Amino acid sequence: WQDAEDSSQLWSTKLDSVPQTNVLIQLFMKRNIFCLASGEQGNSRKYYFYARESKKGPLFMAEVTISIQTCNLSVVLRVKNPDDIPGFQKIFSETLYCLEEEEESETVEL
Question: pLDDT (tens digit, 9 = 90+) per residue, 33-51?
């Protein structure tokens, strides 16, 4: 994961709430981004995702950390070629946006 030859990019955002693990994993899976591992570490949840454009395409890795207390989400994206990061970041960002939409649609107002 921490291969010095890989290119990486860090970015973060604030979520309205901490998503349930199964919801987050399923949402990414719909976009062919798969979870290798997940778990809680202190007051944070960590997820490790991977994706590949095609059988011989570049491998994308993402480490996602969500603070349970503050709902801050940070993502470290890793890929061999730095030119591949913007496309993967776009898909990842769109997926997180869909997560927030799904959570809003599950909220019932009285």
Answer: 999 999 999 999 999 999 9
Please list, residue by residue across 79-105, b when 16 or more beta carbons sit within 10 angstroms of its beta carbon and e when fewer do: beeeebbeebbeebeebbeebeeebee
Helix (H) or strand (E) holding 86, with range, is helix 85-106
Cα separation, 30 vs 28, in Å, equals 5
Give residue-wise pLDDT tens across range 9-23: 788 888 888 999 999
Q: Buried b / exposed e across 12-31, counting CB within 10 Å, b at 16+? A: eeebeebbeeeebbebbeee
